[in-house]
Every structure is written in C-alpha cells, then in structure tokens.
Fold this protein.
Amino acid sequence: MARKHEEAERCECMHVHEDMIEMVETHMPQEEELADLAEFFRVFGDTTRIRILYVLMCSEVCVCDIANLLGMTQSAISHQLRVLKQMDLVKNRREGKTIFYSLADSHIKSILSQGLEHINE
Amino acid sequence: MARKHEEAERCECMHVHEDMIEMVETHMPQEEELADLAEFFRVFGDTTRIRILYVLMCSEVCVCDIANLLGMTQSAISHQLRVLKQMDLVKNRREGKTIFYSLADSHIKSILSQGLEHINE
DNA sequence: CTTTCATATGAATACTTGTTCACGTGTTAT
DNA sequence: ATAACACGTGAACAAGTATTCATATGAAAG
C-alpha cells in the first residue's frame, strides 16, 4: 500500500535533535524487513482469516469443515488458507482425499491475545 | 473486506466431532470482537504506519518531523496519524502551533517485536 | 478408464485503502 | 486584522483485496 513518496515537499521546521535522527535511523528496520512485517500483520487484518485461526487453535481440521463451521464456501476458505500458508501461519497434511490444516506455530495464539488485550483497554 | 457470505453451499462431509464444534463455538470471540481485532491488526499492515511507530518509539515528535524523517508529505503522515490515534496507538499534545505525537501504549513495541520474531523464523 | 469427492486456482467483480491535491482550522507574530 | 505556519480533512484516483464463479488437479472407488 505504500505508494510513491519519492520527493516530498518538506516544511522548514525541524524540532528533532541531530542525535534523535541518528537514533531513529539506527533503530528503524531495513526497508525489506518493514515490508515483510506489514505483510505479516495484514494477514491478521481480516475477520475470515482470524476466524480460521481460532478454529485451528481448537483442532486440526479439513477445509470443508472450516467452510461449514464458518458458513462460507470452500473456495473462499481455500483462498484464505493459501494466504495463511504463504505466511507460515498454518501447515497442512494430506490423508487420502482430505487435507488437514493446523497452526504452524504456537505463538500465533500469543499475538492474537495481545491484540485482544489492547482492544479491551 | 469481509463480504456477504450469507448462505454458502456446503459440502456433505463433516469430519469434526460434535464436541469439537462445541469447543470452537465457545472459544471463538463474538463477531464484533473479531471485527475489532481485524481492524486493530490492519493498522499494523502498512509500512508507513509501522515506520511512524518506530519513530515514536525513539521520541515524541511533531508531524512535520515525521514527514521529514520518512520523506513523505505532511498530509500523508497526518492521515495515518489519524488512523493510529483512532486505534489508540498514539496520543498527541499541543504546544503552540506544533502538535507532538507519542506512543499511547508501551506494549505496542512488544507486538511489533513478536511480528519480527515470526518473520525471522 | 470413468466417476466421485475434497481441494486448489484463475479470472472477474465489488469493495477497500493509501496518497495526492486543494482547502480548512487553529495558533502565533506583526 | 493580516500574514505565516503547523496541522487536519474531504474528494478523487490508483492500487490492492476478498469473495464468487467456473474450472482444474489429485486421490480413491467402482
């Protein structure tokens, strides 16, 4: 989503100290890392994906079960599982015709609960 | 983002047990809470906003300093600060003509570093 | 091989979102 | 009052995204 922002017209003021600029530039992650970080959090920015993650917290389940539980089409779930998989939030396992999905990492739960903590003041 | 999904055509299979369905439904947060949660994480899903947060981790700064530091227009920054403020991630303070922004909450840092932990395996 | 079932995927569409542009607001100084 | 400055904001546009629809893949059964 970050668009162009090449040469922005800047105002004249500059309140920050020189060492502050230094400090910001040393603490700020690299551009690529920032992009990865934003992409990571964007995955949590959708209720369907969050609901899928909450289902997978309870149990390993197949795609069509998730679709049933959430009242959505298999296709929609499959598309979102792809996103979750690409970000390494879920993993899957084949058993005959069905494919079972589960959480890839246990600290996903921790991130979600920290989010809940914040919105509940 | 989350669109209609009223009546989805569901496949016939149902692998999950009855008590699993029960468990999912008791652990899944309410619809409104899920929406708030997604909205919260969506704020972190943009590199500009993340960069602003990293700047504010270092120091309380004014809008135009952020614009200068990030090489973007004051307007773009102002729009994003509004989003951050609405989600209670930042607070501000007026001093004459300038308005200083700072982090509203210290555990924002914790959420960001957990994100970094994940993407660095 | 053909059919059936569970899942994946590409294209299309409606919706969302970040930035820019122009202008409005509020404060300080002259 | 007027000008200058820092910041906020609404409209508009481009780019991104979630879902649907139709179809493809891949495995098991007949």
